Amino acid sequence: MSTSGETLTRETVELLQELIRNRCVNDGTPESGHEHRSAELLRNEIEGLGLDYELFEVEPGRTSLLARYEGSVAEAPSLCLMAHTDVVPVDPQGWDNDPFGGEVLTSPEGVKEVWGRGAVDMLNLTSSMFVAFRDAVKSQRRYPGDILYFAVADEEAGGILGAKHIVETQWDHIQCDYLLTEYGGTPSHTKDGVHVLLATGEKQGATRNITVTGTPGHGSMPYAADNALVKAAAIVARIAEYDFVPRIDEMFADRIAAMGLDPDTESMLLDPDRIAEGLTRLPTGLARNTHSCSHITMSPNLMQAGDKANIVASKAEIVVDIRILAGDTQADVDQLLTEIIGPELMASTTIEPLYDMPDGTPQSATDTPLWDALTDSIRLAYPDAKVMGSLVTGGTDARFFRQLGVTAYGAGLLSNQLPLDEFLNRFHGHNERIDIDSLRLTTELWTNVFERLWR
Asked: 154, 162 in Cβ contact below 8 A?
């Protein structure tokens, strides 16, 4: 590694540690998040560099930062590096180390890693993007197009108090031609060489709030009671047991080919009648991701019911995290849920969207100068790598840009020290951490893309 590469890697590690320690935990309520801590940290890091920057505070403490490094050619396409600063809640009892310590620890295998909530999702990119952006400014290298750095609040709760609001109300400030965000850059080694997946699209969110009504009564007489909680439990069971139809398309087939599986397992996963069996052959994290890339998913994650221990529940509410595939609509979701719940239970049930979610989020094409720049840059680390488009199973703020015609990719570059299955398990999981070599590769990726995008 060159001296400059060592310096940038060290800066990325140090910034990641500070971002983790800021504890910008977003529990979905407007008063959580406290992203102003990291927005102010980043502002302080770029003050004095002569940059134009803005802070957007949608609600008190829910602050996003936008900085712009102007290019030399007015009509050249602009590139935005977008990363969020909020993280999901954590259960410290499930961790081996302080989830907000930001410690650098060495694994039993000798791999140096930064530990902490957000290390994978997505403060590793937030820090590496910033360091590469700041280095371009400090070095006074001028590129034809503008480079924007956009650190946003509230991504973990749908972007309502972050990217969504800013895109809808401040588009003249954030408008760009290209966007890079989470997540991508996972290498897989197969008999055909190295495959690297970058996100070109994502599943559409369709979260639903299901309200079930019943009749109150004394808890000591449950026989033949109209208990809303019992009916809600039956609905949860029906959703959990429902056999969703798999959808095998070209992108999914490419993803399977990139996994380096044995021919029999690969054949199973590409067969709608055998995919369920094929999934059982995969490690758990990889199986979950593979299943989600080929199915509509419904995960009942919240339920509230009743008023008192000795009163039959007259109302229950279920929140179901639903993710749909390309071509599915919000109306399709409601129809499918109605069929799953069944007419008897639907008689006392209402279904409502939890968020305002439009139909359809387009995929970004790969025949673009940015895709070529990413491919060339990735091949500096992994020569002859096959770079492939992939689907993100969770939602990202890229959807707000894709809906306005911006080409957006989820990118990054991981080392060989972090297997795909393990990487996927760390999203929102216990013991979240990222190896320093991946931080180096990702920081270098952004700087290399700058050099190649406008050639």
From this structure: yes
